């Protein structure tokens, strides 16, 4: 199962949607819509980050830091998630596009930007944790970080969902997120 479908399946459970809904004072269908658009958006931005040697190395280190997070019980994980860390992760992933992406996701899901930010700050650590676990299984230590992470991030992803995610990242509307994110994702995962 690809990482996007794994994440969507984990979040798309009644109890999980209910808990996330309560945490941002929203309806479960709004949360579902946001996760269906927000998770691919985060993965698309991470894919861009891993497309440079420096970005791949930084992302690889971040994934190693989150690989041992206990996500066996998603409800418990989300209840105890460090949203301050999640906000930092969002800043690293989206850079100066954070507000614009949150605004677009909010308009699409019917949520305000504060709700979007809070929910994404809960989901971002989950994304890194699940990617870290998958990296530990699939990427060999002697693999080129760019190639290994590229395969991990793009393997089996739905082209429709990832294409939809690109619209949230393409701030100038030219259909190319590379120019929009290229300046902002270089060293974001360094601490």
Q: What is the strand and helix layout of this fold?
A:
Elements lengths: L2 H9 L2 H11 L3 H22 L3 H14 L7 H7 L2 H12 L3 H12 L3 H26 L6 H10 L4 H11 L7 H5 L10
Helix pairs in contact: 1-3, 2-3, 2-5, 3-7, 3-8, 3-9, 3-10, 4-8, 6-8, 7-8, 8-9
Describe the structure.
The chain has helices at 3-11, 14-24, 28-49, 53-66, 74-80, 83-94, 98-109, 113-138, 145-154, 159-169, 177-181. The chain has 191 residues and is an all-alpha fold. The chain has one domain. The protein is globular. The chain starts with a helix and ends in a 10-residue tail after the last helix.
What would the principal axes of the Cα set say about the shape? globular
Total number of beta strands: 0
Helix content: over 70%
User: How many separate structural domains?
Assistant: 1
Largest sheet: none
The count of helical stretches stands at 11
Low-confidence stretches: 175-191
Structural class: mainly alpha
